[in-house]
Amino acid sequence: MDTIIKLEKIDQYNKLKGIETQHPLISVFDNTGTENLPNNSRIHFGLYAIFLKAGHCGELRYGRNNYDYDEGTMVFVAPGQVLEVNNVDNYKPTGLALLFHPDLIKGTTLGKQMSQYSFFSYESNEALHLSLKEQQIIKDLFSKLEYELSQSIDKHSKSIITNNIELLLNYCVRFYDRQFVTRENINTDILSKFENLLNDYFLSETPQNMGLPSVGYFADCLHLSPNYFGDLIKKETGKTAQEHIQLKLIDLAKERIFDTGKSVSQIAFELGFKYPQHFNRMFKKNTGYTPNEYRNLN
Fold this sequence. Notes:
Elements: E1 3-7, H1 10-17, E2 26-30, E3 41-45, E4 48-52, E5 59-62, E6 65-68, E7 73-77, E8 82-86, E9 96-100, H2 109-113, E10 128-129, H3 132-150, H4 157-182, H5 184-203, H6 206-210, H7 215-221, H8 226-237, H9 241-257, H10 264-270, H11 276-287, H12 291-297
Parallel strand pairs: 1-3
Antiparallel strand pairs: 2-9, 3-8, 4-7, 4-9, 5-6, 5-8, 7-10
């Protein structure tokens, strides 16, 4: 049976790794030479964690997928997430680690903007893969954080630490944008599959049984996390996945309204609306006409 570990404090994690706690709310260290996390364990994080892997680092199960982490891979964990650890017998930790408690960023600019870093909710197979130059930038920022933690805490410490974490995360946003671009062929394939899934959904009786489709539904069909899927669609098309779903709904609604053998309520139900008035509001918002007005105009 897997060991279950709940990590709520920085000191708990540091003790597992056999390292000294320099600050109660943040830890930055080189994993090389530290203790292994308990094998065959499930770790429930109450902390933010960022790992830069160096070399082959065994196997982690994160979300629905296993991933063999190679050099230059970054993994992001948010409070509330679970990491499963299943390492080979001769596994030795390497790479860099940054963990910080949510209390560290409360009341800071970073704390207010934390939700924009959607990659904390990506699946393991959506990890960030860095070039050598990108790795060096990240390593330099880790070094600055390590230096700051080695100094005596003063009134400037918190702002300097949180500003450097924010800078690190903003670089990761840039590097993810680059990764979306360099994987254009894969992204195009996902877009094509998304369009096919949209068509199949509305050509079937699924809307009547399940209602309006969600972004999460299509992400799950494509074996992606909702955040990664949404970010990919927005980067590729300039529109959100939800906007794509709504545009498909409007196009289908315009076509079906010409079928005068069906009432507006019937059409709304066929498209997945539970209440016709919700369909009427959406249609008017997007076309400027109610469904009946549009039918009469045409």
